[in-house]
Amino acid sequence: MRVIEAPSPNHEPRAAGVPLDTVVVHYTGMPTAAQAIDRLRDPAAKVSAHYLIETGGRVLRLVPEGRRAWHAGVACWQGLSDINSRSIGIELVNRGHAWGYHPFPESQLESLRVLLADILARYGIPPARVLGHSDVAPERKTDPGELFPWRTLAAHGLAVWPDPVQPPAETPPVAWFQARLAAVGYCTPQSGRLDDATAAVLAAFQRRFRPKAVTAAPDTGTAARLMGLTASA
Ligand SMILES: [Zn+2]
């Protein structure tokens, strides 16, 4: 695919001995694409991503894949915290929740699928390691958000989606949710209580796998999706 070089100075060496095994999808969350691109290339902002995809589908490369870009921030997945060293970050131009969140156009998603398929094949990254920023930073981030079509991505083999499972008759205890969320990969307290961090993880899970009802509370529908996702794991 055609990629336009738009180098950002915001990168550094990846940590030694860490595999590149993750992709993190973001939205830019700024009023215009130009503002987002400027910020991701501004040395003072200290943020970047490897790729940015415009709404029309144009793909920009800001940071070489071999370098550590600064997109995930304080983050965690499967107990691992240096997500930037092990990931490729992809920004999708979208105004985001603060500036007028809107559906991702098909032209943009088509470019994303081509780019993801290429990255996953080249590094041998499994679909389960294609994550949203909110998955790895649930207390701070909501991108790429509930309009991002994870299910379609999964249908292309580029992400995971739960198998359909009959919901349990009653909502399981909080500890059950905490254990299942951790099994999926979410860094989740195992406190047995619906604390703030657990609520944030529940919201992140729902935003991704049940986007029509992001309640941050345990319920049978969320339990069914967790069962469908971890059944074969
Ligand atoms: Zn982000």
From TrEMBL:
<feature type="domain" description="N-acetylmuramoyl-L-alanine amidase">
    <location>
        <begin position="8"/>
        <end position="145"/>
    </location>
</feature>
<dbReference type="InterPro" id="IPR036505">
    <property type="entry name" value="Amidase/PGRP_sf"/>
</dbReference>
<dbReference type="GO" id="GO:0019867">
    <property type="term" value="C:outer membrane"/>
</dbReference>
<dbReference type="InterPro" id="IPR036366">
    <property type="entry name" value="PGBDSf"/>
</dbReference>
<dbReference type="Pfam" id="PF01510">
    <property type="entry name" value="Amidase_2"/>
</dbReference>
<dbReference type="GO" id="GO:0071555">
    <property type="term" value="P:cell wall organization"/>
</dbReference>
<dbReference type="InterPro" id="IPR036365">
    <property type="entry name" value="PGBD-like_sf"/>
</dbReference>
<dbReference type="GO" id="GO:0009254">
    <property type="term" value="P:peptidoglycan turnover"/>
</dbReference>
<keyword id="KW-0378">Hydrolase</keyword>
<protein>
    <recommendedName>
        <fullName>N-acetylmuramoyl-L-alanine amidase</fullName>
        <ecNumber>3.5.1.28</ecNumber>
    </recommendedName>
</protein>
<dbReference type="GO" id="GO:0009253">
    <property type="term" value="P:peptidoglycan catabolic process"/>
</dbReference>
<dbReference type="InterPro" id="IPR002502">
    <property type="entry name" value="Amidase_domain"/>
</dbReference>
<dbReference type="InterPro" id="IPR051206">
    <property type="entry name" value="NAMLAA_amidase_2"/>
</dbReference>
<keyword id="KW-0961">Cell wall biogenesis/degradation</keyword>
<dbReference type="GO" id="GO:0008745">
    <property type="term" value="F:N-acetylmuramoyl-L-alanine amidase activity"/>
</dbReference>
<dbReference type="Pfam" id="PF01471">
    <property type="entry name" value="PG_binding_1"/>
</dbReference>
<comment type="similarity">
    <text>Belongs to the N-acetylmuramoyl-L-alanine amidase 2 family.</text>
</comment>
<dbReference type="InterPro" id="IPR002477">
    <property type="entry name" value="Peptidoglycan-bd-like"/>
</dbReference>
